[in-house]
TrEMBL record:
InterPro entries: Znf_CCHC, Znf_CCHC_sf. Residues 64-96, 124-154 are annotated as: Disordered. This is CCHC-type domain-containing protein. It comes from the Eukaryota. Keywords: Metal-binding, mRNA processing, Zinc, Zinc-finger. Residues 138-154 have a biased composition (Acidic residues).
Length: 154
């Protein structure tokens, strides 16, 4: 794997005194959890760089671990022929108000809506007025007292 070799070259350039075992450990820590675990469990004793590369390639070929780190760009270019939409005649019915059915306006600007709204306001005001009416004593005449049957009298 060229990635492993590039990482090894970078680490040796930065730290020439670093041992090969330490370089391998640092590279494995960059591989990721599953791939790192698989390689460490396979390579228990210190191996050479070639052994690490061979075990990495074997693991990635047998499993899906570590694949698709770099996905090649997808070619989204068209074939050059413009694709046109089929010419369908659109059945566009004239827009109409869903409140009154007129084609001159829509529901949100319907004049009947405002009339209904005004009538509702008037009805609310009328009910408030009837609730505020008070009874005068002269308007109220007590009814004649009725005699209760003997069973109900006290």
């Amino acid at each position: 794997m060229s990635w492993f070799l590039k990482q090894k070259d970078r680490l040796t350039a930065l730290n020439p005194d670093m041992s090969e075992t330490m370089i391998h450990k640092r590279i494995l820590s960059k591989c990721g959890g599953d791939l790192e675990h698989a390689i460490r469990s396979r390579c228990i004793k210190p191996f050479s760089t070639e052994d690490y590369i061979n075990s990495m390639e074997d693991i990635t070929n047998r499993t899906k671990i570590g694949r698709n780190w770099y996905k090649p760009p997808i070619d989204n270019k068209t074939s050059g022929k413009p694709v046109s939409k089929p010419n369908k005649p659109h059945d566009k019915a004239p827009l109409k108000c869903h409140k009154c059915g007129s084609t001159s306006h829509l529901k949100n600007t319907c004049p009947k809506k405002t009339i209904i709204h005004e009538i509702e306001i008037e009805k609310v005001e009328d009910t408030k007025e009837t609730n505020n009416l008070s009874l005068n004593e002269s308007d109220y005449e007590p009814s004649e007292e009725k005699e209760l049957p003997d069973e109900l009298s006290i």
